[in-house]
Amino acid sequence: MANVVRKVSIIGATGTLGSRIASALKVAGHDVTAVQRKDSTKPVPEGLKSFKVDYQNKEELVSTFTGQDVVISAVPFPILDSERIIIDACIAASIKRFIPSEFTTMLESPLAINLPIAKEKVLIRQYLSSVMPDSSSPTTWTSVNNGAFLEMALQYGVLGPNPMAKKAVFHDGGDKKIAVSLLSDIATAIVKLMETDSTFKAAANQPVYICSAAITERRLTELVSEVTGIDFGTPEQVSVKELIAQSDERLKQGDKSAIINYYFQMMYGDGYMGGDFMKFNWNERLGLRIMSEEELKSTIQQILCN
């Protein structure tokens, strides 16, 4: 079956993930437009059209989105107040599909709304469900949910091994499997979702979970040690429950740098369903591979040693 060519507008197309999504869609043959703020001076990925608009002006957004098939939000920290205007404009412009800026580990637990790092994304999902009640709606949504960004996790040492500090940190023992994703695989998943009408339709009004691999912090530390030769010594053991209690206090004192710690609650906390990631997984349906350990070692080599 021939691939379907779609007209796609991307908000956040100059960002770390958005630029990869935009380029992947362009390479796949889609007609891609970067929608930027009027005051933006950032260059868009090569070969993309650019349209500058006031994100708070619904009429301008409707005019921009009219004739488009898909609108993707890839802004790094979405909030409902801003995204609601974009969503309403998508509906008014009769686009076929809106993809919100979720791109996070697990939002299926009702407890996710309690997490500072996930609350706005949950509220946006709830709003989408209220204005696009079923898959027969003219405009539908699909969220793409992925494992922790593997490139960042390895480079900054947040999921077990920290190559820069030459130490390792294990959360709740380090033996719980977590999903991890390469940025390129997230972009490929979005391309796959648009390849055929049947896949596009199947993903209407639901989350799509994908990952590049599933691995424990302990095993990831071992693999990084094998690839780099770093001896990480005795890992520091961190209780997620205690970490979150400390983070709550830091936030009360205005220390917003603590927000990153709530990802560990999402992945490991009781009731947050982080361990259920693979139950929702679409890799097989989309024809996406899950890396073997040898492939993972090769990826670690590319990220840390090149």
UniProtKB/TrEMBL annotation:
Determine if Electron transport is one of this entry's keywords. no
Keywords in alphabetical order, please. Answer: NADP, Oxidoreductase
Q: Which residues form the NmrA-like domain?
A: 7-230
- Taxonomically, the superkingdom here is Eukaryota
- Which residue windows are transmembrane per the record? none
Which molecular-function annotation in GO is an example for this chain? oxidoreductase activity
Output the PANTHER family linked to this UniProt entry: CIPA-LIKE, PUTATIVE (AFU_ORTHOLOGUE AFUA_1G12460)-RELATED, NMRA-LIKE FAMILY PROTEIN
Q: What's the protein called, per UniProt?
A: NAD(P)-binding protein
What organism does the UniProt record list as the source? Answer: Penicillium daleae
Its taxonomic placement starts with: Eukaryota, Fungi, Dikarya, Ascomycota, Pezizomycotina
